[in-house]
């Protein structure tokens, strides 16, 4: 057994036996993995994806090593605003994924359910709550979440506030996209700044936020270029790299290092050969552990994931002179806000630009929006002539995904699009 796997097994066993004494061991593993990715990257991956993996592992390892330097959030919390304080945002969904690297998700989920959380709650949330309540993960001084798009956000953060005394603010994101709604949310963002200043004793720098939005606009242009390049070039990656990119676009957006990385990827991809396989647009979450998906999409010249809806969930420019208004507009116009019909239209519009050969929608266990809207999206895609496969499973809890069923349906779908079919 490789040394890394031995350490993972050791940490898992010690955490289950003495969870309150395991945090230092978990942190050490994150630091070691960050160094491993730097000195011994996966050479099968494109250099840009190698750098991405190292960047995200380092971001989490460095942040968790300094517990007073980060803020908990959900995946849509405004990282630009948190970064303007000189702090870092860590989403609970991302942390749950990293902790699952020790194969502890089942322990944390079962722990959360043993203290009363519903089995139907999103497993990302249960894994995170279980990690905190078991005594493994220490709590920060502040948290922020949005009503977008998961209905479990408020309950999860309210639970952590009451049980662990973590103050948090909920950003209530309106459905309607009009001036009054944007002003309403912009006012909440300004209130968030004042509350963080009072509670944390940190100074907010408006010019730093404006600069972050300027960088973000440049980064989004580069991301659009990358999506175009992925139509043409084969850029070997893995399913987990799409998850890292999803995290980066929501935790590091507006930072110079992320902009530099995407620019590097746009230069590096042009040195790679033409892609002649099938281009896949991925919808919703990524079960990065799933064997059949990894078998077909990891470094495979026949199939390439060119984008995911979460990575391109907002495509507009941000007004750098009105930063609070701009961030409010970004949240309200997010592809995950409002009706599912709105989401289906935006995804189809994006698909019309990047021209995928097919799309795959992964319905994550516990996500009512994904399950309820998948058929609507499939019909919208059908009208655009894009075949869509709907897969059911769990993004993090392996016990809720059945590899055999996924493999059978995936193979049939890939065979069908290889023959030019339009239904799935």
Q: Key features?
A:
17 helices, Rossmann fold, four-stranded parallel sheet, 2 domains, 424 residues, single chain
Explained architecture:
There is one protein chain. The longest helix has 24 residues, at 206-229. The model has no long low-confidence stretch (mean pLDDT 93). The radius of gyration is 21 Å and the shape is globular. It is an alpha/beta fold and 424 residues long. The protein contains 17 helices and 8 strands. 50% of the residues are buried. β5 (278-284), α13 and β6 form a beta-alpha-beta unit. The strands form 2 sheets. A 4-stranded parallel β-sheet has the order 2-1-3-4, sandwiched between helices. Strands 6-5-7-8 form a 4-stranded parallel β-sheet, with helices on both faces. α15 crosses α16 (368-383). It has 2 domains: 3-200, no CATH class; 206-418, Rossmann fold.
Task: Please write the string of helix (H) and strand (E) elements.
Answer: HHHEHEHHHEHEHHHHEHEHHEHEH
Can you count the helices?
A: 17
* CATH top level label of the largest domain: Alpha Beta
Total separate domains = 2
The strand line-up of the biggest sheet is 2-1-3-4
Percent of sequence in beta strands: 5-15%
- Give the overall shape, derived from the CA principal axes: globular
| CATH topological fold name of the largest domain | Rossmann fold
Give helix % range.
55-70%
Rg over CA atoms, rounded to whole Å, is 21 Å
Corresponding CATH architecture of the largest domain: 3-Layer(aba) Sandwich
The main pleated sheet reads as: 4 strands, parallel
Q: How confident is the prediction overall: mean pLDDT? A: 93
| Termini gap | 40 Å
């Amino acid at each position: 057994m490789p040394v890394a796997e031995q350490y993972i097994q050791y940490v898992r066993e010690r955490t289950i036996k003495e969870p309150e004494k395991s945090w230092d061991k978990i942190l050490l593993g994150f630091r070691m993995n960050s160094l491993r990715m730097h000195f011994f990257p996966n050479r099968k991956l494109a250099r840009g994806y190698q750098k991405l993996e190292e960047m995200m592992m380092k971001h989490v390892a460095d942040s968790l090593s300094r517990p007073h330097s980060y803020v908990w959030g959900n995946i849509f919390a405004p990282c630009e605003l948190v970064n303007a304080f000189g702090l870092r945002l860590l989403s609970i969904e991302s942390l749950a994924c990293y902790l699952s690297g020790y194969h502890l998700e089942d322990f944390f989920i079962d722990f959360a359910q043993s203290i009363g959380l519903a089995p139907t709650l999103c497993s990302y949330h249960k894994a995170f709550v279980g990690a905190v309540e078991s005594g493994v993960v220490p709590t920060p001084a502040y948290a922020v979440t949005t009503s977008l798009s998961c209905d479990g956000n408020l309950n999860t953060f309210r639970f952590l506030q009451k049980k662990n005394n973590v103050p948090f603010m909920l950003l209530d994101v309106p459905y309607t996209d009009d001036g009054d709604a944007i002003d309403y949310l912009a006012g909440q963002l300004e209130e968030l700044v004042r509350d963080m200043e009072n509670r944390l004793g940190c100074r907010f720098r408006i010019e730093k936020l404006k600069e972050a939005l300027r960088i973000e606009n440049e980064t989004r242009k580069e991301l659009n270029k990358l999506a175009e390049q992925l139509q043409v070039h084969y850029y070997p990656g893995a399913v987990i790299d799409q998850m890292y990119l999803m995290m980066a676009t929501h935790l590091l957006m507006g930072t110079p290092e992320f902009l530099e990385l995407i620019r590097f990827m746009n230069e590096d991809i042009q040195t790679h050969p033409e892609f002649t396989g099938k281009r896949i647009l991925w919808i919703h979450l990524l079960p990065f552990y799933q064997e059949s998906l990894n078998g077909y999409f990891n470094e495979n010249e026949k199939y390439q994931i060119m984008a995911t809806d979460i990575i391109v969930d907002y495509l507009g420019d941000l007004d750098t002179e009105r930063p609070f208004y701009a961030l409010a507009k970004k949240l309200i116009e997010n592809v995950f806000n409002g009706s599912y019909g709105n989401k289906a239209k935006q995804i189809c519009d994006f698909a019309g630009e990047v021209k995928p050969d097919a799309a795959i929608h992964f319905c994550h266990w516990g996500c009512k929006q994904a399950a309820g809207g998948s058929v609507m999206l499939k019909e919208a895609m059908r009208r655009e002539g894009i075949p869509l496969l709907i897969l059911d499973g769990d993004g993090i809890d392996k016990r809720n995904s059945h590899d055999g069923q996924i493999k059978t349906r995936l193979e049939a779908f890939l065979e069908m699009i290889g023959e030019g079919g339009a239904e799935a």
